[in-house]
Amino acid sequence: MSVQEALPFPEPDGAPVLPPVSAAPALELRGVTVRYGQVPALDRASLRLVPGTVTCLLGENGAGKSTVVQVVSGVRRHDEGELLVDGRPVRFRRPRQARARGIATIWQDLAVVPLMTVWRNFWLGDEPTRGVWPFRRIDLDAAREGAARALERVGLPGLNVNQPAAALQQGQRHSLAVARAVHFGARVLVVDEPAAPLTVAQHALVLRTVVAARDAGVAVLFVTSMPSYAHLVGDRFVLLAGGRVAADLTREDVDVEGLTQLMSGGEALATLTAELRRGR
Amino acid sequence: MVTAAQRPVFGVPDRRPPSRWRRLLTRPSTPALAGVVVALVVFGVQAPQLLGAGGWASVLDASALIGIGAVAITLLLVAGQFDVSIGVLSVASSVTTGLLVTEAGWGLWPSLAVSLLAALAVGTVNGLLVVVTGLPSFLVTLATFLVLQGGTLVVAQTVAGTSLVDGVEGAPGWTSVDAVFGSVLTLGDGRFRVDVLWWVAAVLLAGWLLRRTRFGNAVYALGGSRRAARELGVPTAWTTVALYLLTATAAWLLGTLALVRQGGVPVAPGFGAEIEYLVVAVIGGCLLGGGYGSAVGAAAGALLYGTVRTGIGVAGWPPQAFQVVLGVLLVVALLANGVARRRLIAVPRS
Q1: Which tens digits make up the pLDDT trace of A141-189?
Q2: Per CATH, which fold does A22-102+186-255 belong to?
Q3: Where exactly are the transmembrane stretches of this chain (chain B) (predicted)?
Q4: Alpha-carbon torsion (B101, B107, B109, B115), positive or negative
Q5: Does the beta-carbon distance from B231 to A154 stay under 8 Å?
Q6: CB distance from B53 to chain A under 8 Å?
Q7: Which one has a higher pLDDT value, A196 or B331?
């Protein structure tokens, strides 16, 4: 599919046609629609995540990126279409089910509760317990040790897991989110890049996480609004606009400039540049 | 896969052993416990009889009921919620019990069971309204407060034609109910009421729930970062409703203890108790924004309340001085909580 064919937006009629891919997708969205009231936040979006590849999800604010993340990670249920894990349709009712299927998410805000300790943050939503109800309680030793071991694996050996997460540096917090995401054996990793401005070092951290997961054979969905960073690591680029897939490109189809132009709406940017120049 | 050597190290691991003293400062209960010690010293000097058995009995008696309410409010505050209706609900449930006994002629135990169910129903409504509307819980429970306040008066006056329900003593089951909710242990010149045991039980239960269970983690997460809680699949709605059920149970317990103590109840539900619970919970270290607080802190806050209230009486200060001291304590607590929170963020603890 070339850039010219991808723009303007594909007609909504007819089933979306996806280019063939080499390996079987670990996760697939087929014509998924999500509505907030009457307004579709996601309109018949299709997406394939293949093991060992990085799929970049690009788009402006409000294009539907976070809705895709929410559907894939089980926070929100889709209204229409199919969500397939290993070719079988699923319908997640809660994030725990997505995690159990090996879909891990690194959230934009890293999903860290600042005033809770590191180990409580690590297990939040899926704490190891012992005893039977009503005496069921958190297995403190297992939880502390498990969190410490998982953090060691992502490069934080000897971190005090009893300190509040607020005491962690930004990078350490990111590691906490990574450790939590991969703990249950992630096969699909969703990385939702923060919208807040990051330093270059923080961007590097996110990108290294993406590349490390890809090298481990994980299917990665990298959600970002920065085409330059996306092009550094991406194998496939899916552009969202107004809740629809506006373009689905491979590395061969597009270079950084092309991607940036597509992102900013090409013509609109050209017009803007011309106007500004004339104004001067 | 990247090897260990290639793997990026994110930040520098912190190996500093946190000092015991600095860790102590990050606990929500520390300022209130320090306040209890100061109050005991101040009033112990002014009125030494405060430290005798009789004095302790008075202190604990003044602390117990407020302590039960404060521990319930603490759970809510940690989750970032509040319940204005807890005080009125306690009056409403004791009126329900009283009317079932005096007007319908029921036994005490079945009446208590029915009023507990009614209180739980109110708690469910509160919780569901907060979850469904997503409005500030202060407003939602203010509505419940008004309905209960008016409703209790109307029902009591229509059914009993009076604004004082009494005569529950001697009703079937009174002996056993009095033993459970009204026992008194006399030690020396101190009369220790069973309320104190209920208070201790409430604190232990709340402490265990908060520190040791998944429910407690969910409560802290709700108040600390609702978005993170939702993203991680913490059952936010269920947890909120469960919290209001616990508060309703505490209200019922408070109402029952008052009913049994006085053998009746004046139907005069008003504003007041819930504000004192809130003040005590904040003195006990809760942040109004949520995510921070402890059951031990609530207990310490209630003990401080009881000590000051009794101490002012025993030392012969004018009773109005109590409000002044409580207000000063609240301001000090608000400042201390802010400091504790900053320290918590800055200092590792275990």
Answers
A1: 999 999 999 999 888 899 999 999 988 888 899 899 999 988 877 899 9
A2: Rossmann fold (3.40.50)
A3: 24-44, 56-79, 86-106, 112-132, 139-160, 196-211, 232-255, 267-288, 295-315, 321-340
A4: negative
A5: no
A6: no
A7: B331
